[in-house]
Amino acid sequence: MTNIMRGVFRAGERVQLTGPKGRLNTITLRAGAVFGTHRGDIKHDDIIGKPDGSVITNQAGVEYLALRPLLTDFVLSMPRGAAIVYPKDAASIVTMGDIFPGARVVEAGVGSGALSMYLLRAVGESGSLTSFERRAEFA
């Protein structure tokens, strides 16, 4: 397993900020950058180097919880081009398809890519996913 999702936050990594009212904002960290909200700015440098689960306080004193986004967070925030396979449906497909770490899976139609992400998570590093897409806008 790679260390991408471990350790402290690094520049180039995505982080999900949860505000005081539960509003979620997902940003890509960049050194020197600032994320602006109606409640004040959050400096990316205040997040870089902090561990997952840190509470970040902006210049106005408003606290935000900084977490790494889950696979589900990525899927639910995807643009709605093709039909998206949601987490509950993906779990059924993975289970009924007997997809396990090390499996070799062929997928016909990539679409939004949501199911592809779940399949890749299921097959793991030792498995493989081969996807075919005939529509250029989804390839």
Description of the molecule:
The protein has 139 residues and is α+β, with helices and mostly antiparallel strands. The chain folds into two domains: 14-67, Vcp-like ATPase, Chain A, domain 2; 71-138, Rossmann fold (3-Layer(aba) Sandwich). It is 19% helix and 27% strand. It contains three helices and eight strands, in the order E-E-E-E-E-E-H-H-E-H-E. It has helices at 71-76, 87-96, 114-123; strands at 14-18, 24-28, 34-37, 40-43, 54-57, 63-67, 104-108, 128-132. The strands form three sheets. Strands 2-1-6-5 form a four-stranded antiparallel sheet, with no helix packed on it. The chain has a two-stranded antiparallel ribbon with strand order 3-4. Helix 3 links the parallel strand 7 and strand 8 (128-132). Helix 2 (87-96) packs across helix 3. The longest helix has 10 residues, at 87-96. The two termini are 27 Å apart. The relative contact order is 0.13. The model has no long low-confidence stretch (mean pLDDT 89).
